[in-house]
Design goal:
With about 475 residues, this protein is an alpha+beta fold. It has 15 helices and 17 strands. The termini are far apart.
Amino acid sequence: MSIPGADTPRAATERVLPTLNVDGTRRWLTPHLSRGRFYRWRLVTAWALMALFALLPHARVGGRPAMLLDVVHRRFTLFGTTFYPTETMLLMLLLVGIFVGIFLLTAVLGRVWCGWACPQTVHMEFLYRPIERLFSRLARGTGARAAPAWRALRLAVYLLVSMALAHTFLAYFVGVDALAQWVRRSPVEHPVSFLVMVGTTALMFLDFGYFREQVCMVACPYGRLQSVLLDRRSLIVGYDARRGEPRGKLGHVTGDCVDCGACVRTCPTGIDIRDGLQMECIHCTQCIDACDAIMDRVGKPRGLIRYSSRDELAGAPRRILRPRIVLYPALLLLVWGALAWALAYRPNAEVTVLRGLGSPFTVLRSGEISNQIRVKIENHGGETRRYWVELAGAPDLRLVAPENPVTVGPGQQATATLFVLGDAAAFPHGSRPVRFRVTDGAGFTAAPTYRLLGPSDRPGESTVERGGQP
């Protein structure tokens, strides 16, 4: 049975998304700037954060970069402390601590990160949009014929700013020294690095020049998580419907909202805050500044749109203390306390003993059995150290080390190749557990165990099958 008109497409009668027109095309946003008290505070905060973002890669703590996320060499330095991929527990505590901190911040202050500190919001609203407004004024002042030239010049400025941001961003991953070499050298000498810089610049340009608020609304998952991170007492930017409704033009309403639309025109994501809490709202407070200016103009008290909570806006009394406000700090204290304890008792180096490449053991012409060993040493300290390697409690075995002691720079690792020799009788049943002792002469001592391999004295038994990695 067919339904008449079921296959006929229907035209949309209202906007589904704030950045989508009724015909499905993108609605480009040019939000009106509202210069209120919150904007001034955000402006100071934004410029401070942009300065911090640009200067932090150059700062050093204890001779190390303040922040360097060296993915290639798998070393992550945060404020002078380097974390290595082998330190699973430390990395887990660090990540859990960061996530719990985000949960606590959101539960108390809502999406204050999005509106006040997120690099996307900071650079978009306080760097790229001011450039856009400047060129829009210049274009209006010179007439319509010059508009394309001003538009091209604006895109050129966008490209230069994106290039500067891209290089600063890369400095967090490769370091300022390596980045300086990339910039000075010819692209022919380092094509891969050059393509990385070009690609990062292109992403920055597309992000802030084209995608803009779509990054917050489509790509970023934070807005979708707010349903579980926020509760009804969390701080939000909200519209007081009890005071504002019914809305209408001045002189024809009983509520305080005069339906001027200023809060909508100033919103960087295009939403109407009067529709309630929405995923697209980044709590930038522009609607607060816009509404406060209108309330001053019509002689009504400020705060129709304000920082509040859903319960307060519904008429419930303010209650700051609630279970998650107690649970999150307690968990945060536990995690960061465990991380501080682990860092305080963290060894200055990490030693790993590995089997050498090739056969598990070699029978020399003298009849002795030789095991090739690789000792990998990671120096977690801030200065170059020399490490001595010796056998402990094995007087019938000899250690032959072409390089002993092993010199390792700060934050570096080195692998020394050693040989352990002994008679066949020293390997009963084809194996021999031993203990190495690694010292640096400054208090560090490690004693890793290892199982040497040799010929088996049991008929038909394969030493290789019984051996393998320790």
